[in-house]
């Protein structure tokens, strides 16, 4: 047993012991899994029973136990505020949904932790946004830029030029809706109080080989109890873009590491 200290980008950290243990999943035993036991958990870790690392790094659970499960897993994230159904995580062959559309995983030799994919464009209202070019999301030789799919990030962050083009296209398509003041990191909000139904532009993420059409609830979200909804994307000055968990809600997201591909199955939580 050795000491453990891990820090995350949001300032959360854990300090404790690092050891190995045998884990049992139903009737499947996985020996010598490296895990940490935190004695001082701060930040977003406070109150959590634990943290299961699902990244591509050597210490993540899929990397340690991948051979026992065919190097395949998937998860489905439900909207905690609107559903009584639980989210779930599946390992093995049954993790791969037949209805998923797949895009190849991209390898970043400089940073092996994240799941990089190739985003080639975004459509709003059925039309590709011209200014959102594949070059905005390119992973360069130095390991900078690119697009990752991350369950631990809430709001999708797009490199600033791509976000501004997306936001402006959405504002144009939703120009008949009453605007509301900015809220937190959201700069495109609407006052939908008193309305039971509204029409908003469609949003489609175009990955290489896979078009992912987002439900409206995955990009226009309530931020208060007074009918204020905000466009759930944000810009970043970093070259790295992140597909967050709000946009993944309701999809079964499939990580087929054996096939080096990532899939999205719409309405996959049923």
From TrEMBL:
Gene3D superfamilies: Acid Proteases. The keyword Hydrolase applies. GO terms for biological process: proteolysis. Keywords: Hydrolase, Protease. Residues 1-265 form the Peptidase A1 domain. This is Aspartyl protease protein 2. It comes from Datura stramonium. The keyword Ubl conjugation does not apply. One of its GO terms (molecular function) is peptidase activity. InterPro entries: PEPTIDASE_A1 (IPR033121), Peptidase_aspartic_dom_sf (IPR021109), Plant_Aspart_Prot_A1 (IPR051708), TAXi_C (IPR032799), TAXi_N (IPR032861). Belongs to the peptidase A1 family.
